[in-house]
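Field reference: sequence -> structure
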Amino acid sequence: DPGDSLEPVPRPPLEKIGPAIAEQLRIAGGLAGQARGEGPRVLWLHGYTLDSTSFQTMWSLLPGYRHYGVDLPGHGRSAPIAPGETLRTLGRRVADFCRAEDIEHLVALSFGTLTATQVVIEAPDLFASVTLAAPSLAGGPQDPEVGRTYARLGALYHSVGPGPALTDTWMNAIAWRGVEKQPELQREMRRLVERHRWSELRDWGMQRLLQPPQTAEQLGRVQSPALVLIGELDLPAFHACADILQRCLPRCRRVTLAETGHLCMLESPRPSAVAIHEHLRAHARERPAPTERDA
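Structure field:
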């Protein structure tokens, strides 16, 4: 049974993440990613300045699934945000990929939840389940301090270019609060941020992935059962987004992770994996019984 055993596993070092344990993917429209494991198919969308390798611990805690990680535009091995790209066009492109690959479940963290929410808006009944962790909404509540940090990042990019100043400014932002309590996790996340290209700041292309607004009416049409994961210590704006999702999504359950900040799946991987595992099992698609020919 997928994921029945959730034994603790060591966090895999980033240098061991690669073709030896994951199949590298090239996806239409300049997107890239990786896939690992066998079983029901789950797509994961990462946080800002991270990439699909950030989910390796979560994947190790959830055996028995075929995990797909897509690097969002301008992240990881994916191409920069294309001229004319919007949240709507990205959502449709990811939905098309999920149809082609027969993806059953969708999981996203923080910045990735914007795209995931747009995907289910564009394809309201495509997935057996969706999980939104530390959720954000286009046009929804925003933390003012995080907004000021984005402005500082943009100014730094245009004055000194990519480099340590951007990494330090971003990793000192309030959204990372709590990660410093786990030095190994903090080092790994810093290494991911250090290899981020920051191309989205060149022409403020990231702003195009924050619109159009995602409305209550659109959320009300989503048929996929949703799990909202939120850290107890997350910022008020993200709790407000979780409130909106819980109120507007027709089939939504909310789980709060104790003593956990914004990057909840990374800070508290085991409790997150338990909640996600229960959600995936509760909404697994029925598969035909094997025949003698299949045996």
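Note: Strands lie at 23-27, 31-36, 41-45, 66-71, 105-109, 129-133, 226-231, 252-257.
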